[in-house]
Amino acid sequence: MHHYKPIDIARVLNISTSALRHYESWGVVPKPARAENGYRLYSKVHLAYFRCLRAMFPGFGVGVTCDVLRHIQNADMDTALWLVNKQQADLQQEKVVADQTLVLLQNPELPLLANKKRKHRMTIGEAAAMTDVRQSAIRHWEKEGLLSPERDPENGYRLFTPMHIRQILLIRTLRRTVYFLENMKEIVQAVEHQNIEKAKKVTEDALASIHQRNRLQFAGVHQLVELCKELGLSG
Predict the structure, then answer these.
(1) What does the pLDDT read at residue 131?
(2) CA distances (Å), origin 3, targets 6, 30, 159
(3) More reliable by pLDDT, 97 or 39
(4) Residue 224 is part of which domain span?
């Protein structure tokens, strides 16, 4: 059997030999054989594991990648593949959210509300009914600084405008995905300041990132399939 020295694999993957030892210590690659002098002797299987690790990290992250490869070591390919499938399904949902957000930003007539009568000033109850969002959620978003409705000077009630309705719809859409949470405030505030182009730019940038992650995930899946072939698990 052909063996690789750590430096051989490190050079192939353009990483350090200490990185290889770290991965081994995480329990995500099989323990290598040792030479008489104690040096590690890696095989083609180890090289396939390391290739897979390096390919999956960018698209799936360290945690998911390590979980997947631990299942592969236990010859549990199905569980490993379903973990990958879940990540890809989540990414698909993020794309759906991004697409829906762009629709909301591009159409000033709020097409999702075409069958609902709109007013220039609405109470929180009317805003909640129009957007199918609970009043408690709207109050929470106001407390978080995502919404800033005016108050009726006579009774102190919140007054919502069509701009607030759009913000509520955007928040309702964006909160479905963790990825957008960090961009949510910037997008919603851009709408409040009538800077729709900025809000669209943030969303388009997020969509570009989603496309990139999709490509990276498929590159990682390819190496995972190659690893399964090397282990004889793909038959």
Answers:
(1) 81
(2) 10, 14, 72
(3) 39
(4) 6-87+214-231
